Amino acid sequence: MPIKASQRSPVQRPSMEGHVSAARTARVRPVSAGLDHEPAPIPLPSEPKLQAEILAGIEAGMADARAGRGVDFEDVLADWDARLASRA
User: 6-60, pLDDT tens digit by residue?
Assistant: First the structure.
């Protein structure tokens, strides 16, 4: 079903072509002085039980994605837009 102009989100969605453009990145994230690369990711917690839970959740999500189960990205964005609109 096509989306009506009144239903379009004012939120600019990232390109689905494989990467986010440099122009969009500059608008979203301010440039850090002296850094020309992404900051290091936050490390996993050191507690083994918590690490195992996180990694098991990631593996379960990847298995669902490979099997074709899950929610389409467009549906997730539409849900976010609806939630944001209801808070305004």
Answer: 556 556 665 555 555 555 554 555 555 555 788 888 888 899 999 999 999 999 9
* Residue 9 · residue 77 · CB < 8 Å: yes
- Under DSSP, the state recorded for 34 is T
Predicted confidence at residue 87, as pLDDT, reads 84
Q: What is the CA radius of gyration of the chain?
A: 18
Distance CA 85, CA 5 (A): 16
Q: 24 or 70: which carries more pLDDT confidence?
A: 70
Chain center to CA of 60? 18
Measuring CA to CA, how many Å separate 24 from each of 1, 2, 29, 52? 28, 26, 9, 35
CA dihedral 72, 74, 76, 79 (to 10 degrees): -140
Query: How far apart (Å, rounded) are the C-alpha atoms in residues 50 and 27?
Result: 35
